[in-house]
Design a protein that fits this description.
This protein is mostly helical. It has five helices and no strands.
Length: about 110
């Protein structure tokens, strides 16, 4: 008889994509990356987080054409600036005593 090995757990990436299909989870996940201090920021981290959310939306067949186009535009910007503009805005708001908070829009 041939021995069959059945995986008992999903890979982390599969788990992440599955969990990010929940919009509340995705918002909390992205918010975490927007709150990283200067030392915790790496150029690819924000891009990777956004890609994971896009992948989750695609897996759930829940990505509008408009969102896809906006993501492509943002990806192009982030590929050249590493998100400096976004993090500069966050730092400016922090200096004023504000913080970015993501909330899911009402449908």
């Amino acid at each position: 008889m041939k021995e069959v090995i059945i995986p008992t757990s999903k890979s982390y990436k599969e788990y992440l994509i599955s969990s990010l299909q929940d919009v509340e989870e995705a918002a909390a996940y992205l918010e975490t990356f927007l709150q990283l201090d200067e030392e915790g920021r790496e150029p690819e981290v924000l891009r990777s987080a956004l890609k994971n959310i896009i992948d989750a939306r695609l897996a759930g067949n829940n990505l509008s054409q408009a969102a896809k186009q906006k993501y492509q535009q943002l990806e192009q910007i982030l590929s050249t600036s590493s998100g400096d503009e976004i993090y500069s805005l966050i730092e400016f708001l922090d200096a004023l005593g504000y913080r970015i908070k993501l909330e899911v829009k009402d449908s």
